[in-house]
Amino acid sequence: MSEIGKMYIDGQWVLAKSGKTRDVIGPADGQIVAAVTEGDKEDVIEAVAAAKATFDKGDWRRTTPNERAALLHGIADKLAARIDEFAALETLNNGKPLRDSTYDVYDSIDCLRYYAGLINKPSGQKYAVPNPDMEAMVVREPIGVCGQIVPWNYPLMMAAWKLAPCLAAGNTVVFKPSELTPLTAIKLFEILEEVGIPAGVANLVLGAGATVGQEIAENMDIEKVAFTGGTVTGRKIMTAATGNLKNISLELGGKSPCIVFDDYDLEKAVDWAMFAIFCNQGQVCSAGSRLLLQDTIYDAFLERMAERTKRIRIAKGDAEGAEMGPLISEAHMNKVLSYIEIGKEEGARLLCGGYRMTEPEFADGYFVAPAIFADCTPDMRIVQEEIFGPVLAVQKFHDEEEAIFLANHTAYGLAGGVFSNDLSRAMRVIKAVRAGITWINAYHPTYPEAPWGGYKQSGIGRELGTFGLDEYTEIKQININLAPGNSGWFEIR
Ligand code: TXE
Q: Which of 218, 251, 386, 400 is the catalytic position?
């Protein structure tokens, strides 16, 4: 096996102080694909010290926007020259089909270039205040040391989404990938070093959530923490971040509705509904995991959807033409399978899939045949809880009012889609859906230009777009006195 994957702290590639290592498992066959150093609290403390010293020194935050833009473009250029290599490594570690991994690399490049382009655009505000001798303005400044914690479902893309705006704004950072998928993050940091991101600006710490992640959330010298992951973990991070009242952004779970009215082309809606739930093996925070169908098309729609779902090409991610791959880990697969048992016990009708695939090519991997549960009722656990796998819960509605009620009957509010040729109705419904990312007559397409994040228990704050850059800045008001006089408050004696 090749060399042990290292952490990048203060411009040096280092092993964890504890000397511990962690095996990285490939979900396609359960084999060890790499070993990486296993950081702990003390490694975070060292990385934070480097990030703080670098921020306080001031050289980095005083680089011009054009200098930082050149660095971000440099990272994007190097990624663009190695798309196949990054995609293959992501597929090896995460299991997703190569087509998906390749798309993730393109999205990462787009995100880096978007923020490279955004940072020298006009920003700030100027106010007309009641005193004609005062000039009042607002400028945005970097926050300081940021901590970033990302999950395993889009390892490289999540790194790009987090690092690009953070560095663009002039912060320094301590970044933690998921312990399950550290490999593309290590390669990305090699690129950060190659393009000349100064030592101490961007630090990579590897390790578990309970140790490294927890310390990032708690550390008193980290002024902002940004997290993508499950709602339960998000809650822990928010609690841990209270010590120094960190600025916080959380992108959490979802149970998003995909609503189909009977006036929309059935074939096309089936196609989008499949994409909504089964893309990335259903391991997508914004997945359309609740399908709401108008009663008039319910049976025909489900018949066609089950037929097409059974024909999805499931294969190891590096196989030619693979459309779905394995789930991320044995533990996660078992969690998903347990939800399928819960669905059966709750009385939902399983139309297809819902079992571990055991044919010889799949036997050692974590493959689950995509499942559709029909006849679900609003309070079933499979309707209310995020399963984060290829499991769809289908409900029937009669009219617009019922569709909206069912769509909002959840603690989450990340995403939602509606399909209807009646644009007025589609617009009424989507405006009534309490979610941060929505579509009409589509599901999933999103771009770095537009904000990403949720209502309710799906999170706090927004990534991407101009909002995503704002999340990495403090707002400062500056007042300039143009008059030569005194304050006039106390008599001069
Ligand atoms: O995610 P976690 P897990 C959901 C999905 C899934 C569930 C659990 O429903 O079934 O979460 O998955 C780090 N302090 N999503 O356990 O725990 C961890 O090391 C600080 C939704 O894999 O959210 C990793 O880097 N950090 C989702 C990151 O948090 C901690 C994506 C994500 O892990 C920590 C993934 C702690 N106490 C899962 N505990 C989405 N919204 O896209 C863990 N971590």
A: 251
